[in-house]
TrEMBL record:
The keyword Transmembrane helix does not apply. GO terms for biological process: cell redox homeostasis; cellular response to oxidative stress. The active site is at 43 (cysteine sulfenic acid (-soh) intermediate). GO terms for cellular component: cytosol; mitochondrion. Belongs to the peroxiredoxin family. Prx6 subfamily. It comes from Trichoglossum hirsutum. Residues 1-164 form the Thioredoxin domain. Transmembrane segments: none annotated. Keywords: Antioxidant, Oxidoreductase, Peroxidase, Redox-active center. GO terms for molecular function: peroxiredoxin activity. This is Peroxiredoxin 1. The lineage of its organism: Eukaryota, Fungi, Dikarya, Ascomycota, Pezizomycotina.
Length: 222
């Protein structure tokens, strides 16, 4: 799977019932993230953080969905623990992928082998993140080692960048956050950039010095 691939469809049991993944996406953005095993310490902190930050994702039209290579029964106990531990109310679905079929379909395993497990049977490592847009196109793929917790703020930042980029035809520089300067997308010509610039006034996308520099650079270069 690569950026730009259509997210493969699948049917699966989740903690919120059986789903068809493409139906679950519907017209929304989706963040799909995965875990090799329930009750693993780093993953537990991540699920607590995702549950806490879910309203921020919802604000952006993003649905969360987790995956862990265990059963529904195991997931239910884990969710109860997480809610107690972090004082959360985890409501998004978690896929029961005991057979690691979805993990395999999405290249989440270290090697192309569903038997790639350690001595305790934990698959190293099913710790991916996919950001999928409403057209069901994969827009971001991340793969984390077991030792390193993910960053929910960074995922929100990426969603903000992708959504701003799609809407305003801009790209965003390093460490960009909404309100910072953005860069005119190379596919935008000077006349279109002028329109973008005038339309952007007062919006959350700032077209100040950086953009002006690029815009004028493009103007004088053509
Ligand atoms: C964890 O702590 O979440 C973890 C431990 C072993 C493998 C994968 C994840």
């Amino acid at each position: 799977l690569r950026l730009g691939s259509i997210a493969p469809n699948f049917d699966a049991d989740t903690t919120n019932g059986r789903i068809n993944f493409h139906e679950y996406i519907g017209d929304n953005w989706v963040v799909l993230f995965s875990h090799p095993e329930d009750y693993t310490p780093v993953c537990t902190t991540e699920l607590g953080a995702f549950a806490k930050s879910e309203p921020e994702f919802t604000k952006r039209g993003v649905k969360l969905i987790g995956l862990s290579a265990n059963t529904i029964e195991s997931h239910s106990g884990w969710i109860k623990d997480i809610n107690e531990l972090y004082d959360t109310n985890l409501t998004f679905p978690i896929i029961a992928d005991k057979e690691r079929k979805v993990a395999f379909l999405y290249d989440m395993l270290d090697y192309q082998d569903t038997t790639n497990v350690d001595s305790k049977g934990i698959a190293f490592t099913i710790r991916s993140v996919f950001v999928i847009d409403p057209k069901k196109t994969i827009r971001l793929i991340l793969s984390y080692p077991a030792s390193t917790g993910r960053n929910s703020a960074e995922l929100l930042r990426v969603v903000d960048s992708l959504q701003t980029g799609d809407k305003q035809r801009v790209t965003t520089p390093i460490n960009w956050v909404p309100g910072d300067d953005a860069i005119v997308h190379p596919s935008v010509n000077n006349d279109q950039a002028k329109v973008c610039k005038s339309e952007s006034k007062g919006s959350s996308c700032s077209f100040s010095l950086t953009l002006a520099f690029r815009y004028f650079f493009r103007s004088t270069a053509s």
